[in-house]
Specification:
Elements: E1 30-40, E2 47-58, E3 63-68, H1 74-82, E4 89-94, E5 97-98, H2 104-110, E6 114-117, H3 121-124, H4 131-141, H5 143-146, H6 151-157, H7 174-186, E7 192-196, H8 204-221, E8 224-229, H9 232-238, E9 241-246, E10 249-255, H10 256-261, H11 266-273, H12 278-283
Parallel strand pairs: 3-8, 3-9, 6-7, 7-8
Antiparallel strand pairs: 1-2, 1-4, 4-5, 9-10
Helix pairs in contact: 7-8
This protein binds adenosine-5'-triphosphate and magnesium ion.
Length: 284
């Protein structure tokens, strides 16, 4: 292998080439304080708070989960964290920089530091581009940042055969396509990976593998991760901290084991009860 992820400098161990100024590398990678994001209801046209006063922080190398039912505001929160979606009001700092105060040039410089892995891998890939030409386009955007690894080694990192470089998205299985999406995120050497239900669109038989791959590559790259899921069991298996969202608000936060074994909020209890095997655990 020509190059490996290990050669990327771990987050928190100093400033890497291409890291925007203003980031000493010591503070939280992402810091959200009392964030409010409003959307307009389709029918009534009224504004409502899709994210309602959420605060969370993610340290270097840390994996933080956000769990909650459909419509609770998880994706709205995640998109704000990337600077790609509505940013609303409240504190929103990425690598110590206030996302809303940045000029567009500064925001562009910061953007590669956050990479998103979405639920639907095929929807994230351009159907007209082979894996190789998609990677070439990405590398063209950030030549210096992405030159640390070649395409073959990158695919090896996500456990895909190099032959897949010449395939088009429709020639890839869901699991393979999601591995390509993870590879596209990793090539940028991000400081933060935002994974929004990254395995829930995949066949059950490959979900665990893709999750394990995501976890391993995030650790090796030294990136932090904001992991969005409606599945508390998955969050427990890969996150250190979890925030439980209900109707735009965080109703409970804490270390995963604490929230999982001693939930304080009735909604969290219901989520845990709804998990497969919950009754069995409760009986023990
Ligand atoms: N662009 C938008 N315009 C108007 N309303 C929106 C928009 N995006 C999301 N919403 C609404 O905001 C609320 C939160 O949506 P969001 O997508 O953040 O939820 P979620 O927790 O990610 O749900 P899911 O688990 O289904 O992905 C929902 O009521 C949704 O219908
Ligand atoms: Mg969502």
């Amino acid at each position: 292998m020509a190059n490996t992820l290990e050669q990327g400098t771990a987050a928190g161990s100093g400033r890497r080439p291409g890291t925007p100024p203003g980031d000493g590398g010591t503070g939280p990678v992402l810091e959200i304080t009392d964030l409010v994001i409003e959307h307009r209801r389709e029918r009534s046209r009224e504004m409502f708070r899709a994210v309602d006063g959420v605060s969370l922080a993610i340290g270097a190398g840390e994996t933080v989960g956000v769990v909650g039912e459909s419509g609770s505001g998880k994706t709205t929160l995640a998109m704000a964290a990337t600077g790609l979606g509505a940013t609303g009001s409240g504190g929103l700092r990425l690598l110590g920089r206030d996302l809303r105060a940045l000029r567009s040039r500064e925001l562009r410089a910061l953007r590669p530091e956050v990479q998103v892995v979405f639920q639907d891998p095929h929807g994230s890939l351009d159907p007209r581009q082979s894996v190789r030409s998609g990677l070439r386009e990405l590398r063209g955007l950030q030549p210096e940042r992405t030159s640390w690894i070649d395409d073959e080694a990158l695919l090896e990192q996500v456990r895909l055969a190099p032959e897949l470089l010449d395939r088009y998205p429709h020639q890839l299985s869901g699991g393979q396509a999601q591995r390509v999406c993870i590879a596209r995120a990793l090539v940028m050497r991000p400081r933060l990976i935002v994974a929004d239900e990254p395995t829930s669109g995949l066949d059950v038989s490959v979900q665990a593998d893709v999750l394990e791959l995501l976890r391993a590559s995030q650790r090796t790259a030294g990136a932090s991760m904001l992991f969005i899921s409606h599945d508390l069991a998955v969050v427990r298996s890969i996150c250190q901290q979890v925030h439980v969202m209900f109707r735009g608000k965080v109703v409970e936060s804490g270390p995963v084991d604490q929230v999982f074994t001693d939930p304080q909020d009735p909604y969290t209890r219901r989520l845990i009860e709804a998990m497969p095997g919950a009754r069995w655990r409760a009986r023990r």
